[in-house]
Amino acid sequence: MVYMLLGTGFEETEAIAPLDLMRRAGISVQTVGLNGKIVYGGHGIGVEADITLDEIDLDQLEMIVLPGGLGGVASIRASEKAMDTIRWAFQNDKYTAAICAGPTVLADLGITDGKRAVCYPGCEENMGSAITEIAPCLQDGKVITGASAGCATAFGLALIRALKGEDMAKTIAKQIVIRTQEV
User: Which H, E and C letters describe the chain, residue by residue?
Assistant: First the structure.
């Protein structure tokens, strides 16, 4: 089971795009409301979470995902139970994934120490001893990081690749017809 933590102020694109892609790939994903079932993102979009933080089943956890958004990241940091769950996932060799400002939470817990990682531009000084790079997303072992809302699709495909393999990631990428264009 993949658990995606949603705290008040999360970045909607960084949650919904990867969630949708993983579900298209047949991955079991549950959104987790940190302070109840209805969670409002940073742009005022309300999402009904599948479960609350108290309902996470650690025996089923394969991956934990942290969308960014400064409010969402602050909500995660403010929850001792959320921080303990992220720490538990890493210590038990589960995938830990975060995008935008989310990787700074992984850095707080020492998860990115010595690992290649990306984060939202300007958050690098909060990445501890991670080896920060410029890329849409990176995987170093069981740690997956993404840069920003604009990289949410690449991040979602990286999560699929980690759990279901390259072929499934390519299938989903083809299904959604990815095209890039300079802005």
Answer: CEEEEECCCCCHHHHHHHHHHHHHCCCCEEEEECCCCEEECCCCCEEECCEEHHHCCHHHCCEEEECCCHHHHHHHHHCHHHHHHHHHHHHCCCEEEEECCCHHHHHHCCCCCCCEECCCCCCHHHCCCCEECCCCEEEECCEEEECCHHHHHHHHHHHHHHHHCHHHHHHHHHHHCCCCCCC
